[in-house]
């Protein structure tokens, strides 16, 4: 049940700076899992910057035919040139590399590469355009689908081999989450079937909100270290998956596979499913507050243990009341309102620090395991933070709070995440790079994607961690590409060794329409060194991008429909 926000004893909000877990016997009740909070000094920072929760908005910048990368009988010659010219170390050290995320259904349920011929043609086109590589989501629900520890990597092995032949690098996403909304969705990929069977036996393995609605996108982090998956904990299952991936793909690691992004929640992002992923794309328009996901028995046991530890047992019975409904104006709610809202009171601070602290602990556990698994493989590890920006202009930032980011007008919620990534040598991935405040505020005056992103970029700079950018929606207009360039420069300017790359979301039929392709290739050149790009392009003699693309023997755009 939800509880009120008592105005009783004063309570210090500083106890959640660092969480150290005390793990007891996994056979005991979850209530025995306790967390001791200890303030520890952070490592010295090599660079100090002032960070404000509210950062400057920006001023905005001012879209026929299909193309194909197939060039007939010269494809093998092109492939050779692409591999030896475009994959040279000299080119890859310059500028900011661009990767392209593949379609969700690139590998079928049976473990085969879908549309193999079209995929090969697409890879040649991407390589010719100067794209560094592709991002491949490696779905837990496909690879370990039927039985625990029984893995089928064949489709992904074929994709990686194809990328290698075309001179492309690969970033592999360890996707431990569900894709799409249900069996009727053509992109539906659930959690492994054996995991769903365990959830059927124990529904509390799934997140739950105050209304008892279950979210099946990702296993509740409340049971991270409990042996609830046929004798293994979720963290152990994720680790075994990553270890088997490492052993299977070892010949490619550091050579073709240069990056591993580790999923940490719904949509692969380090967050709670406060708003279903399928609604997140448009949640900023409806300004949804989200729901706190703390009502499964494992999360409640942890909350109760922490409340007892500070002598406030009544604070451990559930999440806050007065948080309103999903579509309510936060100023009309008891918890989120700016003036004297419960989020500013002792109970609110206690709850939000516990809630965000659990998310940080979850991220820390996975980072630690991933760093151990991939140590010595010469691949870069990364993790993703969600772009929740539609209440950034308010005092309480309610949609960020329900997602697990304790970020308000008076508290920086992203710096602790960046510090955590820095401890394990992780790159931080974040989205919204193409979004502009002036356009967004026409529909949502309290949102600020640029303000949110600037805060995140400054956190990355302070912690001296590399950055991967992403677009939120598949935008192929010049204004969106120019906005990406602008925000990438915001991160990189002034750094001695900036490390920025961009993942374009995602390859589809629209990308290969002629005008869209022209804009995209121009963007890739702008992200890299244009002079070097042109020199490499012309050094192969008759190899010319435009002439290759004009030979439209196969309509790629039609092939993707």
TrEMBL record:
Its EC number is 3.2.1.2. One of its GO terms (biological process) is polysaccharide catabolic process. The active site is at residues 269, 470. Keywords: Carbohydrate metabolism, Glycosidase, Hydrolase, Polysaccharide degradation. It comes from the Eukaryota. InterPro entries: GH (IPR017853), Glyco_hydro_14 (IPR001554). It catalyses: Hydrolysis of (1->4)-alpha-D-glucosidic linkages in polysaccharides so as to remove successive maltose units from the non-reducing ends of the chains. One of its GO terms (molecular function) is beta-amylase activity. It holds the Pfam family Glyco_hydro_14. It is an enzyme of class 3 (hydrolase). Belongs to the glycosyl hydrolase 14 family. This is Beta-amylase. The gene is BAM1_2.
């Amino acid at each position: 049940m939800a509880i009120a926000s008592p105005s009783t004893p004063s309570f210090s909000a500083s106890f959640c700076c660092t969480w150290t877990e005390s793990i007891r016997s996994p056979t005991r009740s979850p209530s025995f899992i306790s967390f001791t909070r200890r303030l520890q000094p952070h490592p010295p920072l090599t660079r100090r910057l002032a960070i404000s929760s509210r950062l400057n908005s920006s001023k905005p910048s001012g879209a026929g035919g299909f193309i194909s990368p197939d060039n007939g009988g010269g494809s093998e010659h092109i492939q050779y040139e692409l591999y030896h010219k475009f994959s040279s170390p000299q080119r890859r050290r310059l500028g900011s590399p661009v990767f392209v995320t593949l379609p969700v259904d690139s590998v079928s349920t049976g473990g085969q590469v879908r549309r193999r011929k079209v995929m090969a043609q697409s890879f040649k086109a991407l390589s010719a355009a100067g794209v560094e590589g592709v991002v491949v989501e490696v779905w837990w629900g496909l690879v370990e689908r039927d039985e625990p520890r029984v893995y089928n990597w064949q489709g992904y092995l074929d994709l990686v081999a194809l990328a290698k032949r075309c001179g492309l690098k690969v970033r592999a996403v360890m996707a431990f989450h569900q894709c799409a909304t249900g069996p009727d969705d053509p992109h539906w990929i659930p959690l492994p079937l054996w995991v769903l069977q365990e959830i059927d036996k124990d529904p509390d393995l799934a997140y739950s909100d105050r209304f008892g609605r279950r979210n099946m996108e990702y296993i509740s982090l409340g049971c991270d270290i409990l042996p609830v998956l046929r004798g293994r904990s979720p963290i152990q299952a994720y680790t075994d998956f990553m270890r088997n991936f490492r052993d299977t793909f070892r010949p490619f690691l550091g050579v073709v596979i240069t990056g591993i992004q580790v999923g940490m929640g719904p949509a692969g992002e380090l967050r709670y499913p406060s708003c279903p992923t399928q609604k997140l794309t448009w949640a900023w328009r409806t300004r949804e507050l989200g729901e706190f996901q703390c009502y499964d028995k494992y999360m409640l046991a942890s909350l109760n243990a922490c409340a007892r530890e500070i002598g406030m047992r009544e604070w451990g019975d559930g999440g806050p009341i007065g948080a309103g409904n999903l579509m309510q104006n936060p100023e009309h709610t008891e918890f989120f309102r700016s003036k004297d809202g419960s989020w500013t009171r002792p109970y609110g601070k206690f709850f939000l620090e516990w809630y965000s602290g659990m998310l940080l602990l979850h991220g820390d556990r996975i980072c630690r395991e991933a760093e151990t698994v991939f140590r010595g493989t010469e691949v870069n590890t990364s993790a993703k933070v969600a772009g929740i920006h539609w209440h950034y202009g308010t005092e309480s930032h309610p949609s960020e709070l329900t997602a697990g980011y304790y970020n308000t007008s008076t508290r920086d919620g992203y710096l602790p995440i960046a510090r955590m990534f820095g401890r394990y040598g992780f790159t931080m991935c974040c989205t919204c790079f193409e979004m502009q405040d002036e356009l967004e505020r026409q529909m949502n005056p309290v949102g600020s994607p640029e303000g949110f992103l600037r805060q995140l970029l400054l956190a990355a700079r302070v912690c001296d961690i590399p950055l991967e950018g992403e677009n939120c929606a598949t935008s192929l207009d010049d204004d969106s590409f120019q906005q990406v360039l602008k925000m990438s420069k915001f991160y990189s300017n002034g750094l001695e060794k900036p490390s920025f790359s961009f993942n374009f979301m995602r390859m589809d039929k629209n990308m290969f329409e002629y005008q869209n392709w022209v804009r995209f290739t121009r963007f890739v050149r702008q992200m890299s060194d244009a002079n070097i790009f042109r020199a490499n392009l012309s050094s192969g003699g008759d190899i010319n991008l435009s002439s290759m693309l004009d030979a439209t023997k196969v309509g790629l755009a039609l092939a993707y429909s």
